[in-house]
Amino acid sequence: MPTMADRYGWEQQKTVKYAGFWVRAVATILDGFILGIPIAIMVSLLFGWEWVAEDPSRANLAHFLLWAVVTVAFWVNWDGRTPGKKLMAIKIVTYPDRSNLNHSKALLRYVIGYTLSTLIFGLGFVMVAFREDKRGLHDLIAGTCVIHEQ
Length: 150
Hints:
The chain is mainly alpha-helical. 60% of the residues lie in helices and 7% in strands. The protein has nine helices and two strands, in the order H-H-H-H-H-H-E-H-H-H-E. Helix 4 (36-47) packs antiparallel against helix 5.
């Protein structure tokens, strides 16, 4: 008969290693190069190369939406990873059960969580550095966490 620790995953929680602020920041920077450059080129082809300087509203919306679609597609179809996260050997999973993300959690994390984390001057991201479970505002909103792959 399974114990309560087995049933609720308490023993598993002790062995998980949460990904901290700096490893996540490096993964984000890597994604900026690996994914961001092609996305910026696509937006530039659609709106012209001066899209940042001249009437950027439609281009910025397209840029945001393209980033969201690409990122969510990676998270859902590549076991919670983007190329940067894969290179850093970390991945996003649901909290506390550590299952794979579905589209609704991934969209909630990206669109609502990242937006709110950014709007409060990035403090939603900085929270990762100070919490024991290394969860940012976007993680709390979506019910996710970032862990080192084992």
